[in-house]
Amino acid sequence: MIEKLAENLVNLKKEFVSNYIGTSQIQELIPTSNSESFPIDQSELNLLHEYATKNPIYYNSFEKIIDNISCVVYEGDINKYWLNSIQHDSSHAPFSPTWIMSGYVMSLFAKKNGYSEIIDIGSGDGRIAYCAKILGMESYSIELDSMLVDLQKSLTININFNPNCFDAVQFDYSSLNLSRPLFFIGGIAQMGGLELATGVLNKIKSNSNLWNNAGWAFAGTLSKKYPVDPKNNAGWGSFIENNDLQLIQNISLPTAWSFHESDETQYIFAKPL
After folding, report:
1. CB atoms closer than 10 angstroms to residue 21
2. How many CB atoms lie within 10 A of CB 230?
3. pTM flag (> 0.85)
4. Spatial contact of 3 and 267, defined as CB atoms under 8 Å apart
5. Which residue from 177, 176, 199 is spatially nearest to 187, judged by alpha carbons?
6. Where do the domains of the chain lie?
7. Is the CATH number of domain 2-272 3.10.560.10?
8. What confidence tens digit (pLDDT) does each residue in 10-37 have?
């Protein structure tokens, strides 16, 4: 079901791109109601729209029928947040969000695979942590940039996804009393993701119980603009092999940075051997 949901979202995105004439910096869509293509609980779908409506990065929205699916298109601008996110000395990757629907699909994958908590590393505006929370999981958002954390806190009135303004490489994860967490690493491997993932993974490896029960999700790319990893896996193959991880699944999903790309962002799910 999750694979089909991801495939349907990618197809909907491609149809949207082929007819989009707007000029906004970022844009995405969310179906207005559940359907055969998007069999999502309506209350959860409504909460995804609520998040987008309240999020200040979106300045416009409109309804549109795309490939016979009724959707709301959200248009936005992340310039001030992107610029602020790169000013920190320990920043590994600038803010550029995945789609809200993509965050939902990934969180659903985590839940269906038995993970009880989501730790959203380099979380930006906290959308993955938010999606995990509405699916009934415990979630924690770790973000270095205080402007983005303030944005997250403005969105936690009804759904508290536990924003933390902290350097993820220095954070004490044992303080969260995690049982079976999945760590989402923000940033593709070639754009700071490797450094961020290495720092966090080394923290988790120092706690054998936490390490053995943890899962990992990495954002990867097939774009020819970036060097190809010799072990493939969208830039994460060598990292996975060198850190005693095994691949669970690769899910292709839309993101802000892949909107004009022919290939979607690859999300690589892995766990310890």
Report:
1. 4
2. 8
3. yes
4. no
5. 199
6. 2-272
7. no
8. 999 999 999 999 999 999 999 999 999 9
